[in-house]
């Protein structure tokens, strides 16, 4: 598999995709994203007319001087409940899909997802500590509801846990100034296992909070709000801005560390930068949504099957399509009565992925690695 | 190039179409509440001074601008409190768990939509009801994320989590103040206190049997009244000596239960599951030697919700417990 991918990507290293093709792909993805935005804001458990929805958004977002013909509750539902949730879904979906693309290339592993080297376990331990600790130690409950920078204790600990775990894993995996990919994977696995035991222990002691813990671990966007979005958006925006221009490094790393070094890439430096940026995006996403699965694994594969493995196009496309698909999945989750969105992504994502795999059997670019 | 490009557009669009179709099936019009003009459904009976600021069971200061006319209750116990304070017709949204609500309450609430389930609050439906007071439950019965989100929207959210009989009284009085029914709450609480005194007098003097209340047994883990829990205090009031589990998980290990040697086993779970019988308990490995089993004092409870629901009918639950623990006092 890897040889096939390599042959096709070497051909494109220099030139990249043609402009018209890039425009068609990214234009199509943007169109899809816009359609999903409108649909996801207009549909929910309470019926608000499409015209009314558009009018509310026009008045609040664009400042159009429209007469308020709707119930105040409709405006609250559209502007305070649905819009921040849909935007959070898009930001998280885009961030996870981009991080998944980066890790699959960096680790040259088709099973890599944004969580693979410890982000999920670290963030989970942080979040579950934030949920359970105030119950076990009532002293902590005072102020547990307060928010700093728009986020609460759970979000702050999840973010710190994800980022901190990857820093630890990277430091442990480092030997003689190098971080071999296999060592990084295995170290991540071992550290994750220890942290997962801690999560299980806290779950055992969580009593009535088990429901909240479960919902967080499944991944849910029910906690979305403007302040939480205000926390995650700059962090994810930063990682988008710094990662998207590094497509060339990812293309080179696909060839293997030594080949990439021979072609002039400072391999260790690039690996560190890419890992940390992808982890920043993942931790920020996980902090506001819990560990939503499959988006970060499936979207990169889906796009590689559709548009090929060149990261110049693959990275921005994964952001746009990941954003659209998670917002769609969350719409499904809301309409199904508020099930955690992670269940929806697994339920729909995995079979769809299987279908794609079977359909594409025999063609050259099944996976990047 | 061409087929691959086509796939790149078709695949996401197909997914979009499928999901939209699925969504349409999911949201049938019958479950969609529509907006109704917010009209006061009851007139004020007592003149209380609004706006007022109350402190709820989560220690939050809650300001209620005017006497609430559109109340949402997120827990059955809160629903019972509101209805006992003659505010049933002011409820505009409730929890979908309606088991064991009094018949008159069920009838009054027949047309009132569910805005919360076991797993959480449907915030959109709740907001669509345009409530002016939300009665939530503490300790994650109403998820704290929902409480925070609703409070952020500027709704007065009163969190109730009584853990003792005295706190049930206090919460009834708190709701009474919040909805302008101070006097009704005071007389309701007086009546409850009189009932409790009558009951405790009845069982006074009898010896207190070591009592194990079985909440449930799942995958071998035995759940009972937690240490210092409400249920444990009720068993004490009803004239029993409660055998308790861990304060947080409410679980007790079989070894500890055998060592505590209950003289009386009350099967709260038998109220839901008819397969849990005294014979089934006697057949469990390790249970056969307990004093309650050898002495034939394993009692299936006819009712569990009244005992575990901290509302105005908790005194009825207390009487059910007292009758189970001291049947001789009620002959």
Describe the protein's architecture and organization.
Chain A is 73% helix and 0% strand. By secondary structure, chain A is mostly helical. In chain A, helix 3 crosses helix 4, helix 4 (72-106) runs antiparallel to helix 13 and helix 4 packs across helix 14. The N and C termini of chain A lie close together (6 Å). By secondary structure, chain B is of the alpha/beta class. Chain B is 40% helix and 16% strand. Chain B is built from 13 helices and 15 strands. Chain B has helices at 2-26, 76-84, 103-108, 123-128, 144-152, 165-178, 182-203, 230-237, 254-260, 278-282, 291-294, 305-308, 314-325; strands at residues 52-55, 61-64, 71-73, 91-95, 114-117, 120-121, 133-137, 157-160, 210-214, 216-218, 221-223, 241-242, 251-252, 264-267, 298-300. A 6-stranded mixed sheet of chain B has the order 6-5-4-3-7-8, with helices on both faces. In chain B, strand 5 and strand 6 (120-121) form a beta hairpin. In chain B, helix 6 (165-178) packs antiparallel against helix 7 (182-203) and helix 7 (182-203) packs parallel to helix 13. Chain B is globular, with a radius of gyration of 24 Å. Chain B starts with a helix and ends in a 6-residue tail after the last helix.
Secondary-structure map with pairings?
The complex is a heterodimer of chains A (369) and B (331).
Chain A: H1 2-13, H2 19-42, H3 50-62, H4 72-106, H5 119-136, H6 138-141, H7 153-173, H8 181-204, H9 210-218, H10 226-243, H11 247-253, H12 257-262, H13 267-289, H14 295-307, H15 311-335, H16 341-359
Helix pairs in contact in A: 2-4, 2-15, 3-4, 4-10, 4-13, 4-14, 4-15, 5-7, 5-8, 5-9, 5-13, 7-8, 7-13, 10-13, 11-15, 14-15, 14-16, 15-16
Chain B: H1 2-26, E1 52-55, E2 61-64, E3 71-73, H2 76-84, E4 91-95, H3 103-108, E5 114-117, E6 120-121, H4 123-128, E7 133-137, H5 144-152, E8 157-160, H6 165-178, H7 182-203, E9 210-214, E10 216-218, E11 221-223, H8 230-237, E12 241-242, E13 251-252, H9 254-260, E14 264-267, H10 278-282, H11 291-294, E15 298-300, H12 305-308, H13 314-325
Parallel strand pairs in B: 3-4, 3-7, 4-5, 7-8, 9-12, 9-14, 14-15
Antiparallel strand pairs in B: 1-2, 5-6, 10-11, 11-13
